[in-house]
Amino acid sequence: AIRSKGLSSTGINNFCISTSLSSLKVLPGSRTRVGSEVPKQAAFLTRVKTAPPPPPCQDMSECASVEPANHAGVMNLDNISPGLREMKFEVRGAIYNAAVKRMNEGKPVLFLNVGNPHALGQQPITFMRQVLALVMAPFLLEDPRVLQSFPPDAIARAKKYLAMMKGGVGAYSDSRGNAGVIGEINDFLTRRDGFPAKCNSVFLTDGASVGVRMCLRALLTDSGGKRGVLTPIPQYPLYTASIALYDGVCCGYYLEEKTNWGLNIKELERALGQARSEGTDVKALVFINPGNPTGQFLSYENIKDLILFCLKEKLVLFADEVYQENVYTQDEFVSARKVLRDLGEPMASALELVSFHTVSKGAWGECGLRGGYLELTNVDPLTADQLYKLASVNLSPNAPGQIALGIMTNPPVHGDPSFPIFEKEKRERIESLGRRAHMISEAFNSCEGISCQPTQGAMYSFPQITIPPRAQAAAQAAGVEPDVFYCLALLDATGISSTPGSGFGQAPGTFHLRVTILPPEEEIATMMADFCKFHADFMDTYRGGAKL
Fold first, then answer.
1. What is the dihedral of CA 452, 521, 409, 360, to 10 degrees?
2. pLDDT band at 2 (very low <50, low <70, confident <90, very high)
3. Residue 423's closest CA among 154, 124, 120, 125?
4. What long-range pairs does 541-544 form, CB within 8 A, spacing at least 24?
C-alpha cells in the first residue's frame, strides 16, 4: 500500500481508527452483514403564525409516551447504548419540544432554534431548482413547451447530470459519491484555494453532519472512553453529542467572548494539558469558521496558529467550514486547506486535515436536500479505505443532494444565460443577512443586562443574558438551568423558540441564548421589539433577591 507523503508505515498515524471499523467487512451484494449508520435527523418543522388542531400524534414530543413502557423488554433503557443515553442535542431539546406543543395548540411560534433558511422564508436559488426539476423529471426534457420555460444552461446541466448518473436520481451511486460531482468539487477547491485537489480525497455525504459523525466514529469508537477531541466552547452540539455517542471525551477549550469570541492559543494549551493529565488520549481539534453559535470570523493568522498548534501536538484538524459563504465583513473567507498549502513543505504535507462543507447554508439554504462533503488532506490512504468501508454500509449518499453539491460548487458564471439572475439572488441574500445580523445585535445590546458581540458570519446571534438572582432561584426550584428557564419564559410570552446557551457550552456563571438571524428582513424590527418588551418585563418581575 502507498501511504500519503509525510506519513510512514512505522510513523504515528494521528488518524488512528477504531478497531471495530478496521475489522469490519462489507461483502459485495450483501446488505445484512453489518448494522446501519446512525439514523438521519428528524424532518424539520416550519415557522407558523397559527396552526390548526393537530391530528393524533402530530405532537412528536408526546408520541413517545403513547405505547406503554416495557421495562422488562430487551430494548430498554438499561440495554441501549450508554452513549446514546448520555447524548444531548438541545437544538431539538426541551425548548423545541415545548414550541411544538405550543404550535399544536394553535398558538403562534417563530422557530429560531435552528438555521433552517427556507422554513423561515428564504427562497431557493432559481438555477438550483430548475436543474433539479429537470433531473427529477427527465421526461420534461422531451416536451418542447417545457423547454421554452427553462434557460439553455439549466437544460444543458440537467442533461449532463443525467448522463453522469446511470439510472438517474433513483439509482445508487458509488458509496463515495458520483465521480462527476466529485470532479466539480475538486475544480471548486482548486479555484478557491489556488492548489489542486486530489480525485480520491472527497467523500459526498448526506449533509456535513454525516461526514463529521463518520470521522468521529472512526476515531473514537471502541477506545474505552480514553480518546478525546478538543472542541470549542461554545460550539454546535453536533460535536458534543457525537463524541458522547461514540464513547469519546469532549475536551473543551473556551473562546474569549470579550474579544468577539476570539481564539487564544494559551487556552488551547491549557485544555490539552488538562485532558492529557487526566489520561485522555487527545486525537483531534475542531474549529468552526465562521462560528456557530458565536458568529465570529477567524482570520488567516488565527487559522495559521491553529495549524501550527496541531502540527506541534500531533492532532488531526477538523475544519467545519459550512458557513463559508455567510461572511458579513469586508474580509474574504480563507480555508484551512489554503493556509496549510501556503505554509509550504514540509508542513503542507504533515498535517492531517479534514474539511467539511454543505449546501444547507450560504445563499443556497437547501437543508432538506441533505448534501454535504468532506475532504481528506494528508490522511493515510489506508484510513481513507476504512472510511470508504464505513460509507459503504449506507450504500450511497442521496442523489439529489449530490446534484445540489455539484450546482453549488459549479454555479453559473459570467456569460451563462442564468448568471445575471443567479448573481443577483446570491448577492441580495448575503447582503440582507448582513443587515439582519446587525439589526438583531443592535436590538440585543439596547436591552438592560444583555451584551451581544457582532455577528460577523454564519446565521446566528448569541447574546449573553444577565439573569437576576430571583430568576435563578425560580429556575432552581423548577429543576432547570437558568437559561432554559429564561428561554421557556420567552417562548411563553412571545412564541419565539430559541436555544439556551447551556446547550452549546458557556463559561461558568454566564448565560446565553442562540437565535438565528434568518427571519425575513421586514419582520426583524417587530420580532426584536417583542423580545425587548419581554426582556424588560422579565427583569422587572425578577429584579432583586439573593442568588442561591
1. 70
2. very low
3. 125
4. 541/471, 542/467, 542/468, 542/469, 542/470, 542/471, 542/474, 543/468, 543/470, 544/468, 544/469, 544/470
pLDDT of amino acid 54: 42
pLDDT band at 177 (very low <50, low <70, confident <90, very high): very high
> 3-class SS at 376?
strand
Can you say how many angstroms the Cα of residue 140 is from the centroid of all Cα atoms in its chain? 35
Chain segment 316-332, per-residue pLDDT in tens: 999 999 999 999 998 89
C-alpha–C-alpha distance, residues 228 and 213, integer Å: 14
For 512, what's the count of Cα atoms within 13 Å in the CB-facing half-sphere?
Answer: 26
- E strands present in 32-135: 110-111
SS3 460: strand
Lookup: cell for 367: 437543508
How many residues make up the chain in this entry? 548
| Rounded Cα distance, 115 and 279, in Å | 37
Confidence band of 15 (pLDDT split at 50, 70, 90)? low
Mean confidence (pLDDT) of the chain: 85
The model's pLDDT over 424-461, given as tens digits with 9 standing for 90+, comes to 999 999 999 999 999 999 999 999 999 999 999 999 99
Q: Cα-atom radius of gyration of the chain, to the nearest Å? A: 24
CB hemisphere CA count around 472 (13 angstroms): 13
The dihedrals phi and psi of 322, each to the nearest 5 degrees, come to: -70, -20
Helix (H, G, I), strand (E, B) or coil at 455: coil
Residue 35 is predicted with a pLDDT of: 31
Return the pLDDT at 145: 86
Report the alpha-carbon distance of residue 169 to residue 146 in Å, rounded: 20
Q: Who contacts 425 (Cβ-Cβ below 8 Å, separation ≥6)?
A: 123, 125, 126, 363
CA distance 141 to 459: 37
Average pLDDT over residues 282-301: 94
Query: Which residues are CB-neighbours of 450 under 8 A, at least 6 positions away?
Result: 444, 463, 464, 465, 466, 535
DSSP 351-407: --EEEEEESSSTTT--GGG--EEEEEES--HHHHHHHHHHHHTT----HHHHHHHHH
Judge whether 363 and 221 are in contact, CB under 8 Å. no
**Residue type at 205 in one-letter notation:** T
Letter for the amino acid at 79?
N
- Whether pLDDT at 41 is above 80: no
DSSP 345: T
Work out the number of other CB atoms within 10 angstroms of the CB of residue 278: 10
DSSP, residue by residue, 89-106 = -GGGSHHHHHHHHHHHTT
Q: Which of 10-14, 23-27, 470-474 has the lowest mean pLDDT?
A: 10-14
User: What is the per-residue pLDDT for 1?
Assistant: 27
3-state secondary structure of 327: strand
pTM of the model: 0.84
Residue 497, phi-psi category: left (phi > 0), alpha (psi -120 to 50), beta (remainder): beta
Separation between Cα atoms, residue 11 and residue 480, nearest integer Å: 49
Question: For residue 318, what is its C-alpha cell?
Answer: 477538523
